[in-house]
Amino acid sequence: MIRLNAVSKLETAEMEFAKTMTAEKEWQDFFEWTTIDDTIYDFLFKDKMVFNLEWRVVAWIDLKKIATWDIITNLDWSVSIKLPEAEILYVKIDKNDIPDRQLGILAWWWYANMESEIREQAEKEMEQEAIEKWILEAATKNAHEALAELLQEMNIKLSDGNIFENIMDNDSKDNSTWNSYEI
Fold first, then answer.
1. What phi, psi does 138 have (nearest 5°)?
2. Rg (CA), the chain
């Protein structure tokens, strides 16, 4: 089965990360009552991994969210466009290398999903880190610039060179922005 879908994705920011993470699980809860030598305990039950990860986080503007009423032609022939908020499109592992893993002989069956659990946790951390490092703001700024460049190619001039005119109330929960262009 093949399906072709229409998409309106304007990918406007990409952030790449390289990170080394260490993950470790032990059976401490099950063996608190006993005194097993640490070397024997590690040999039997410890699971420790070192991950070298390379990630890519991509942010975008969904152009399908621009409605007819979000585009206004002003009396001076300028155009105001309300862009939707930037969002995280995806978080992708580009490279996943495990240079070191210490797996106890009885731990393999107990921690079978450890690797995928750590990847999922790291994915959430990378997305949050990208947000904290302003990827959504960069995506919005880049969308403004891409749209301005497109409109200039169509011989629509920018009004006063200021395409980042924000006429929204600061108290508004809607973080969309209005941009003005001159025809």
1. -65, -40
2. 25
Contact predicate 86/61, CB 8 Å: yes
Cα distance between residue 164 and residue 80, in whole Å: 10
Residue range 123-163, pLDDT digits in tens = 898 999 999 999 999 999 999 888 888 877 887 655 544 44
Write down the domain spans for the chain: 9-182
Which residues in the chain belong to E strands, given as ranges? 9-25, 47-62, 71-73, 78-83, 87-103, 177-182
Q: Which runs of consecutive H residues, i.e. helices, occur in the chain?
A: 38-45, 114-132, 135-153
Q: What is the pLDDT of residues 169-181, one digit of tens each?
A: 334 445 555 565 5
Q: Are 100 and 51 in contact (CB under 8 A)?
A: no
Higher-confidence residue: 77 or 8?
Answer: 8
Residue 169 CB-density burial (10 A; 0-12 exposed, 13-18 middle, 19+ buried): exposed
Cα 90 to its chain centre, rounded Å, is 5
Rounded to two decimals, the pTM is 0.68
